[in-house]
Write a structure and sequence with these properties.
- The protein is an alpha/beta fold and 797 residues long.
- The chain folds into four domains: 159 residues; 240 residues, no CATH class; 94 residues, Elongation Factor Tu (Ef-tu), domain 3 (Beta Barrel), CATH 2.40.30; 149 residues, 3-Layer(aba) Sandwich (Rossmann fold), CATH 3.40.50.80.
- The chain contains 26 helices and 16 strands.
- Helix 21 links the parallel strand 11 and strand 12.
- The chain starts with a helix and ends in a 5-residue tail after the last strand.
- This is Ferric reductase, putative.
Length: 797
């Protein structure tokens, strides 16, 4: 009896369960630590492979024999391939492993020492590369090498590869030093945060924390800085060499003196002083802007088009968005679910790209060969330039925290459609580029052997080692960014898609810079914005995170409450969450559902998406009681803050788990007396409603503004619980009981929006929707019919 009693005692069972849960989390943490060390080992091996590849590539005669062209062998080519493919991925694996190790063991001296060591090694490698290989160009910082009397060529001749190595050295110095300093800066901030504690005032409320005048001033400052960068870099492209093999100081100085002319005989007979960029029938032609005898800016039409596009875009949007009327004008919805700003941007981009391609296909004189070039070669080269400019443009919407998003007022998730369109444009232009070259090979009798042959046999390409590398990069693009980017594959295997996407980008970027003449002139602006975004994400994702609470509601929603050192967010923004115990490399986006809480904590509600999924495994782990021991890493916040002060009425339309941003915004608006809010929440499953009972109880306060909540429980699934309908109206404490109305019916979104708007002028009304696409589409139509402003949150990536 006694033995039986103790075996079945709830107290003993609970203790045994807690011990089992702790053991489960401990075993998961051990696995995560093993994976972290494995990631570091793979990264170190990849670093070694990249170094060996660079050494083998350096054996090529192009780096040792003066005036030698591009000679290469199979061995040196595969050295270049190893260096190109492994360099960036090596750091990704190394940093991911070290970051996870520090997150799992935040107070471990050894783990933090590894992070400092990685930072020092990265900085040291960058400085070494710049000092050894970049020295010939860095002695005048490249852009100032414009005096041919000072920077003269070696009378004995110099290897062509000196320019290539100079570019590698400069790129290493800029990129690796920036990465290393960013890591070192974060290490120091984390040390201070852990010494002082992570607690702080984390949650800010948009314009209530930053005055409107200050937001406008910051907006203008960012616009000015970006305008200066685009303008300055655009000027540099007008006199620097278009290919990297002449990027030595003497090559830059000589190129800065070259003038454009339409005299064919002059540029043919004296190509070192004159160039003929266009054909005789050109619509657009290059003009000279002489600054001095040593510096002539050649105003290439393609460069002028591209940088004028960027400069006018930044200037126009910056000026228009300085006031409320301008901001609302750009955000106003038009046909097709696009805003006016998006429509204008699409038209302006299409106009630039069309003129850009017209110049290359109709006007440009490729290699002074307009009399001898065949049509396939002309089309191949023109499509290649088109692919490069589209590749540059797609980096802008791909940046999560881009300064361009802050200026335009867009966000990463809302701009992904543009990234996809530009991405498939790159694939189409690249495919056309390759097909036209294959036709050219066929005309010359070298097809199909020259599709991939080392070395090539086509006369004009037999010394070009970049073509084989670019061919491999192109086919990698088609697979990783074409096939795996298709919605069914992307959403089912997102992490596989993401890291293949990243690998393809890391391989393609240097391949394009090696291969495409003039390619760097268009690729660098977009690449720079994307690189700065990666630096910011690298720093933000390494902040100390304190997990306060983990709980499961209604057996389907996991709630995580946490503090992040130094993070500030506004209602409606979201974060990316990583839990090493579940996956070392998976980062999942979740909207912050935090409201007016009093403990400086952030909250996310995570819906279980099924057994075996990341969200499903998290729910089971937290449900078993092991959630409190989990390790969190957080990157964010992402998304543009809502400017609530620009409206008198905000109508929130939520569907299912889409309540998360709406709950946060509604709780915030309840604390204001100058804005009224209405929340319409449509649910098919009662358990989601029950999951938010405690959240509303903890975060909602009574406000002066007239506000109300309507909950519609629609039939479906396993039927609806009557308890869920009244759950939000019966919680004790300062909750929403007086303003909640619940219905067992499907809502008419149009009628609800019209009723909520009341007699308020449509220009002062914002409809904010988050949920299934059908719900958001209905809300968009209703808002447009009413004449109100509309904003939707992206539900699926």
């Amino acid at each position: 009896m006694t033995s039986h009693f103790f075996e079945s005692s709830p107290l003993i069972v609970d203790v045994q369960r807690q011990q089992s849960d702790v053991a489960t989390v401990a075993s998961l943490r051990k696995r995560a630590l093993v994976k972290a060390w494995g990631s570091m080992f793979v990264g170190a091996a990849a670093c070694a492979g990249a170094g060996v590849g660079l050494g083998i590539w350096h054996e090529s005669s192009v780096f040792h024999t003066p005036n030698y062209t591009y000679g290469y062998t199979e061995r040196t080519f595969f050295g270049l391939l190893a260096f190109t493919a492994l360099s960036a991925m090596a750091f990704t694996w190394l940093y991911s492993g070290v970051r996870s190790l520090v997150a799992l063991c935040p107070r471990s001296i050894g783990a933090n020492f590894l992070l400092v060591l990685l930072s020092a090694g990265t900085i040291g490698t960058g400085i070494l590369g710049g000092a050894v290989w970049g020295k010939p160009t860095l002695k005048c910082f490249a852009v100032f090498c414009v005096n041919a009397d000072i920077y003269q060529p070696d009378p004995n001749g110099s290897p062509t590869g000196v320019g290539w190595l100079a570019v590698v050295g400069i790129a290493a110095l800029i990129a690796l030093s920036s990465i290393g300093l960013s890591i070192l800066h974060r290490v120091s901030l984390n040390a201070v945060a852990r010494a002082c504690g992570n607690r702080g005032d984390n949650f800010e409320y948009g314009s209530t924390s930053i005055p409107s005048s200050s937001q406008t001033a910051l907006h203008l400052l960012l616009s000015t800085l970006l305008f200066a960068f685009f303008g300055g870099f655009g000027l540099v492209t007008l006199y620097l060499p278009d290919t990297f093999q002449t990027f030595g100081a003497d090559g830059i100085a000589a190129n800065a003196m070259v003038e454009a002319t339409d005299n064919i005989a002059l540029c043919y007979n004296n190509s070192s002083q004159y160039t003929c960029p266009e054909v005789s029938t050109a619509t657009f032609s290059t003009t000279n802007w002489r600054w001095s005898t040593n510096l002539v800016l050649r105003l290439y039409p393609s460069n002028v088009m591209f940088y004028l596009y960027l400069l006018t875009l930044v200037a126009f949007v910056a000026l228009v968005r300085c006031n409320r009327r301008g901001r609302l004008f750009l955000k106003k919805q038009v046909a097709g679910g696009f805003s006016r700003g998006e429509a204008l941007l699409a038209v302006w981009t299409l106009a630039m790209v069309s003129l850009f391609f017209f110049y290359w296909i109709h006007d440009h004189n490729f290699n002074f060969g307009f009399l001898t070039l065949t049509k396939p070669e002309y089309w191949a080269r023109s499509c290649g330039q088109l692919a490069v400019v589209l590749l540059s443009l797609l980096f802008f919407p791909a940046s999560r925290h881009s300064v361009l998003h802050a200026i335009i007022g867009s966000s990463w998730e809302a701009s992904l459609w543009a990234h996809r369109v530009l991405g498939y444009g790159v694939l189409a232009a690249t495919f056309a580029h390759m097909v036209c070259w294959y036709r050219f090979y066929d005309i010359n009798g070298t097809f199909p052997q020259d599709v991939f042959h080392l070395p090539m046999t086509t006369p004009i390409d037999d010394d070009n080692f970049t073509i084989a590398l670019s061919t491999l990069a192109a086919w990698t693009l088609f697979l990783c960014m074409g096939v795996f980017a298709l919605a069914p594959i992307r959403r089912k295997f997102f992490e596989l898609f993401y890291y293949l996407h990243l690998f393809a980008a890391y391989l393609t970027i240097p391949a394009v810079l090696w291969h495409a003449t003039s390619g760097w002139e268009y690729l660098i602006p977009g690449l720079t914005v994307w690189f700065m975004d990666r630096m910011l994400r690298l720093s933000r994702s390494s902040r100390p995170v304190e997990l306060i609470d983990a709980s499961v509601h209604a057996d389907c929603v996991t709630e995580l409450r946490f503090r992040v050192s130094g993070m500030k967010a506004s209602p409606g923004q979201y974060v990316f969450v990583n839990i090493p115990e579940l996956s070392l490399f998976e980062w999942h986006p979740f909207t912050l559902s935090t409201g007016n809480n009093n403990d400086d904590a952030f909250t996310v509600h995570i819906r279980d998406m099924g057994a075996g999924t990341w969200t499903g495994r998290l729910l089971q782990l937290v449900k078993a009681g092991g959630g409190h021991s989990l390790t969190l890493s957080v990157d964010g916040p992402c998304g543009q803050p809502l400017r609530a002060e620009e409206f008198k009425k905000i109508i929130l339309i939520a569907g299912g788990i889409g309540i998360t941003p709406c709950a946060s915004i509604y709780a915030h608006l309840k604390s204001r007396d100058d804005i009224s809010a209405s929340l319409v929440w449509a649910l098919r499953e009662s358990d989601v409603a029950q999951a938010f009972v405690h959240h509303f109880a903890r975060n909602s306060v009574k406000g002066v503004g007239a506000s109300n909540v309507k909950i519609f429980l629609t039939s479906g699934g396993g039927g609806m619980s009557a308890h869920a309908a009244s759950a939000l109206t019966t919680v004790d404490g300062p909750v929403l009981s007086e303003e909640v109305q619940s219905y067992r019916a499907r809502p008419s979104i149009t009628k609800e929006i019209e009723a909520a708007a009341g007699g308020i002028h449509p220009d002062d009304v914002l409809v904010f929707a988050c949920g299934p696409e059908t719900l958001m589409a209905e809300a968009a139509v209703a808002a447009r019919q009413l004449g109100a402003h509309f904003h939707k949150e992206t539900f699926l990536l």
